[in-house]
Specification:
The complex is a heterodimer of chains A (443) and B (262). With 443 residues, chain A is an alpha/beta fold. Chain A has helices at residues 16-22, 35-55, 76-86, 99-102, 105-118, 132-137, 145-161, 200-209, 220-236, 258-265, 280-283, 291-298, 310-318, 327-343, 352-366, 382-406, 435-439, and strands at 2-6, 59-62, 91-98, 123-128, 166-169, 174-178, 194-196, 213-216, 246-254, 348-350, 370-374. Chain A has a single domain (2-439), classed as Alpha-Beta Barrel (TIM Barrel). The longest helix of chain B is centred in the last third of the chain and has 18 residues, at 168-185. The chains are: A alpha/beta (443), B alpha/beta (262). Chain A binds chain B through residues 136, 139, 141-144, 280-282, 285-287, 291, 294, 298, 313, 315-320, and chain B through 137-143, 165-166, 168, 171-172, 175, 178-183, 186-187.
Chain lengths: 443, 262
């Protein structure tokens, strides 16, 4: 199993009240932007990723969001390019580039090829559709999001593998002269891992392409459902899905004491946390979700990654006038809600001693080949962030590696995803183990 | 109460076009707005006493399947022009509401003889000379719906469109309409920069209707249309919002009937 480090690179200098007043991170005015502090933090986060390499993480993962203090990675490829030069060993995982939002797949193919070349083949590139709010920020037509995603992906693979020059006349993209003089270091191209939350179409697409699917903090029971769906689709493609096809990323904080870990973990709900990523009108732009996804949302009533939830859908349908808000009370409720989130294994916080069994339980249930620690959000000091990373790497990670070996969790480098053939008529093997869920009080 | 039916018309290129048909008399084509056909209202009933109302349900809005090659309002106008020719209905009188007005304007720009009378109610389609067309996609569905009338609580027929609690089925229907509208109208947002140039010289008798408290389409859109359709008549409905046909149906019916009879 590979273990990775991930941070949203939060903008840490925004008073919580500003986010609560806006009911979301997205659309908080950039009049509050402090250029000096941002400059410090861009540099700090790059150093932090180098520190992850130094501590022994196998991967550092980056992502991208637009117009949102929740995540400072507005142009992730810039950071990836710098890390390609600053680091020596660690793999750089992009989860991922929002293809329909960028709207320029040829440029994307060139940028990623350069990163792969500079890093000498350490790039793992992933694709996303872009959050709902990003469709507004980039004026990307949400009704064509899926079509543009598929077309851009197919084009990039061609641009990397088909000798040029050639001409491309697609539906959404058109190029007169495709012949990039920056081709990836890895042949035929870098591995692709796809992060996801709820969309069944994405899961199916991943299985069809034999790309590992990275669950982004989804609840354990529904994640088992997603895994099963992937494995069923994989079986249709004639292969047995296994740990190399799955990754899982979960908010994690480790500290010297339980109290300190819990206090730091409160920052996962700073300003409302994931649920306050964007207001309902920006979370679900028209045409962005398929009917199947909307129906799946209705069954997932509470918040999940980036606040995409049935709750948001209900607000779309029934929201009324906004009442006056007592921000201290809102904060208190958010922190109180965190206990439930922790009980549900949606946030892991504690000392190394208490964190290890929790993550082992996750590994037993989901059997991922990739586990990614999602570092804390909110205004947490550099020292506390680094202490959490250090304790995780030095005291938790060895135990996880050992456990993964014991339960045979192979990563995508140990066994190529999609390489285990499944004969027609043979039932597929299970890809998760739900039996511990009940004992943990989960479904 | 007039009987109206939902029929399926074999339309241009083999598409099955769902169409509401009701009333008697000379045909009157109606293009519903970007949220879809809201139901048979008082103004439909009144006009149906003297005209046969033909209300095609826009492709992609649920009842009629999405047609992939239609990628903008000009394509959609071209599609409906083909339908009219195949049904031998042109020239015909038309009323277009909001984005439905955009469709009618695209059709008349391509074929100035396709309509004998044209009523555009708070039409989108041309960039307003002042103000902005409200960004309905950046609103929750409920806020969008409520913004279409000046006084939701004081507009009894508004309850027919949105009567309080929205069911998942209603949500899906509105989502269908908003998705298809986004697909063909996202950028440039609900207008076509060349439309005003193509409308120059069109002599079709035109009535532009606008509610003085319209929050969706600013008066600047009416002025932009009036700049190119120089013979157009403007009828303002005092105090109404974006749906004068239900907010003040008496006044709406009066101005429309007078215009169509002229």
């Amino acid at each position: 199993m590979k273990i990775g480090y991930f941070t949203e690179r939060p903008y840490r200098w925004l008073p919580e009240e500003e986010i609560l007043k806006n009911h979301a991170f997205f659309a908080v005015s950039n009049r509050l932007y402090d250029r000096d502090k941002a400059a410090d933090d861009y540099n700090y986060y790059l150093d932090e990723n180098c520190y992850a390499e130094e501590l022994g993480f196998d991967l550092v993962a980056l992502n991208e969001h637009h117009g949102n203090p929740f995540c400072m990675g507005s142009v992730m490829n810039v950071e990836a390019a710098i890390l390609a030069k600053m680091t020596k060993r660690v793999k750089i995982v992009l989860i991922g580039n929002p293809l329909p939002v960028i709207k320029h797949p040829l440029r994307m193919a060139e940028e990623l090829a350069e990163i792969d070349l500079i890093s000498r083949g350490r790039l793992i590139t992933g694709w996303v559709r872009g959050a709902g709010s990003e469709q507004f920020f980039n004026n990307a037509n949400p009704a064509y999001n899926r079509e543009m995603f598929n077309e851009a992906h197919d084009f990039i693979v061609q641009a990397w593998t088909r000798p040029g020059p050639w001409r491309y006349e697609g539906k959404h993209f058109h190029y007169r002269h495709v012949n990039p003089w920056a081709l990836p270091y890895q042949k035929p191209h870098p591995p692709m891992w796809i992060p996801g939350v709820i969309s069944p179409e994405t899961v199916k697409w991943c299985a069809e392409h034999r790309y590992p699917y990275i669950g982004l903090g989804t609840m354990l029971g529904p994640t088992c459902d997603l895994w099963d769906y992937y494995a069923d689709e994989a079986a249709k493609q004639g292969y047995q899905a296994s740990s190399e096809n799955f990754g899982y990323l979960i908010p994690t904080v480790v500290a010297e004491t339980e109290d300190k870990a819990n206090a730091i973990a409160e920052n996962f709900v700073y300003g409302g946390g994931q649920n306050a990523f964007s207001a309902p009108e920006y979370t679900m732009p028209p045409g962005y979700n398929s009917k199947a996804a909307i129906r799946a949302l209705a069954k997932q009533p509470t918040g999940s990654w980036l606040g995409v939830s049935g709750e948001k859908m209900q607000q779309h349908m029934h929201d009324g006038e906004t009442p006056a808000v007592d921000y201290k009370e809102v904060h208190r409720k958010l922190v109180a809600g965190l206990d439930k989130v922790k009980r549900n294994y949606q946030v892991i916080a504690g000392t190394p001693k208490t964190v290890i069994p929790k993550i082992k339980a996750i590994l037993n249930i989901l059997r991922p080949g990739v586990f990614i620690m999602f570092s804390v959000q909110g205004p947490v000091s550099n020292e506390d962030r680094k202490a959490s990373m250090r304790l995780f790497a030095q005291e938790v990670m060895p135990a996880l590696h050992e456990h993964a070996k014991a339960i045979d969790l192979r990563d995508p480098f140990q066994r190529t995803p999609g390489s285990v053939a499944l004969s027609a008529g043979v039932s597929r093997a299970p890809v998760s183990d739900r039996s511990p869920l009940k004992e943990l009080g989960l479904r | 109460m007039t009987n109206w039916t939902l029929e399926t018309v074999k339309a241009a290129g083999g598409a099955d076009l769902a169409m509401i048909k009701g009333g008697s008399g000379k045909p009157l084509l109606i293009f519903h707005d970007e949220l879809g056909f809201p139901g048979w209202m008082t103004w439909n009933e009144t006009l149906a006493h003297e005209r046969t109302l033909l209300i095609p349900l826009q492709p992609g809005f649920g009842k009629t399947s999405r047609i992939d090659w239609i990628m903008n309002y000009r394509d959609l106008g071209g599609f409906f022009s083909q339908v009219l020719r195949e049904m031998r209905l042109d020239p015909i009188d038309v009323i277009g509401f909001s984005a439905g007005g955009f469709i009618a304007a695209e059709m008349v720009a391509a074929d100035p003889k396709i309509f004998s009378h044209m009523v555009l109610v708070a039409p989108m389609g041309i960039k307003p000379v002042q103000g902005e067309i409200m960004d309905m996609f950046a609103l929750t569905i409920r806020h969008h719906l409520r913004a279409t009338v000046a006084d939701p609580e004081g507009t009894p027929e508004f309850a027919k469109i949105y009567g309080g609690q929205m069911t998942p089925e209603q949500f899906e229907a509105f989502e269908d309409a908003r998705s298809e509208t986004a697909r063909i109208g996202w950028e440039p947002y609900m207008h076509d920069p060349s439309l005003p140039y193509l409308l120059r010289g069109v002599k079709t008798p035109t009535l532009l209707v606008w509610g003085t408290r319209d929050r969706v389409v600013p008066r600047g859109c009416i002025d932009a249309y009036k700049n190119v359709l120089t013979g157009a008549v403007v009828a303002q409905v005092e105090g109404a919002g974006h749906r004068p046909e239900i907010e003040n149906s008496v006044e709406f019916e009066r101005v429309v009937r007078n215009f169509l009879a002229a």
